[in-house]
Amino acid sequence: MTADLDIPALSVFVFFFLLVTVMGFVAARWRRPETLAHLDEWGLGGRKFGTWITWFLIGGDFYTAYTVIAVPALVYAVGAYGFFALPYTIIVYPFVFAVMPVLWQAAKDKGYVTAGDVVYGTYGSRTLELAVAVTGVIATMPYIALQLIGMEVAIKALGLHGELPLIVAFLVLAFYTYSSGLRAPALIAFVKDIMIYIVVLVAVAIVPSKLGGYGAVFDAADAAFKAKGSGGTLLSPAQILPYASLALGSALAAFMYPHTLTGIFASSGGNTIRKNAVLLPAYTLLLGLLAMLGYMGHAAGLKVTSNNDVVPALFKTLFPGWFAGFAFAAIAIGALVPAAVMSIGAANLFSRNVWKAYVNPNVTPSGEAQVAKITSMLVKIGALVAILVLPTQFALDLQLLGGLWILQTLPALVFGLYVSWFRAPALLAGWAVGFVAGSVIAWSDGLKPLHSLTFGDTKLTLYTGLLALAVNIVVAVVVNAALTLGGRNPAVAAGR
Amino acid sequence: MESRRRSPLMWLLLLPFLGLLWVPFYNQRDPVLFGFPFFYWYQLAWVPLTSLILYVVYRAVRDDR
Question: Which residue among B37, B47, B57 places its CB closest to the CB of A97?
């Protein structure tokens, strides 16, 4: 162990970590079901979560630990552009409000647990179901790895080095998720979210007063960007379209992920979801204020080796050890909730749409839950190994592609709620073209999220995922029109 | 349920998209409020505003079943 070990910080950290560990295991008895050996119970908490539990769960699940680290880091590095997370996490709620209650109702009526179930139930196509399920799993894995990066940053800030603390924390998480299912992160989310609220509110109230007020914070950031010669506290003209398209594309993708959909399906009804769309923006306000920490890093004159260290360095510089420890515990626990829900969401997909569909169609409900429990374990271990063995950049690149990929499942998942015109082969073709074309474009752009289109002498730069979605929809419409006009409708349309 | 979902108030849900995706409208420094350039406080102001809009629509479309 090293000299920079901060004992008060470490004690506070360990206390809260032990607290949530106990809660994670006790959660199996919380709102006790008749049996946990059923996917509705293990994987969806019984579909009974009311407004407040859903609020804490989705809040804890959507605004992840990595967000707490990465958003201020991006703002610290590039300025205004990093704030696209703010419009993104606002416009996502009108979308959730309009679409998700309809999706919930379909899921409740037909007993769907996953996006794959919805697609199979609507179109009767095993291939489209598999496409959606596999996309969900591979988009989620790097997202879990990102949570580990967030946790790693917090643990490192405590002065603990080496990989052992991370491995221990993650194994603990894996075991209580295995035994308690979705109830564990739902219960822990209460602690995590309250801690994060305290940390951010204290930081945004106290830090500016130590640094001379918000005016001074913005001035310091401006000066730092001028000195550096890049970035700024306003967008450059070339950044405007990327900013808007990233916000829109991210908002459309956000609730296609298995972990956010799990939160939706686990809620008790359409009104619960609508009320949450009204109430969840409170977290967005928090995120907006949190992003300011990036500028506060400039005002405090921090010099960091990695942008991800801005938040920990700020807390270590400006606060006493015990509060810094509290903040780091909040971040580390903040990683546990999304990581747990993500692994559950991915496990539900595998169990329902791969195992049941292809390996054992006669699997019992308890067998289904058992497959999901083991999958959730494997998914987490996979993410842990990936972080320990592969370069961090690999997870970041994959996460970026994951957002692009998951966005391509939107037509298959959402269109059928409103129109019954689309057929499975058309949606499958759209998905395939969007998925492949988007990946190839992103790859050729050096795994940057933006792509430039040139029309004559105008150059448009926008989010590649949104571009791929547009291609996806056009292909789906054209293929569907061809199928319909050709009169060769395959015998699908089961349930519609 | 069908009729409620088609409430004309649902059109209000488009307002946050209009307000936030037309970026040139707010990509400026002035007027500054409490030290925050317009770019920042304008976007932050859309958070409670969006909640309010959603609440208004919620009152019109909630189904009590």
Answer: B57
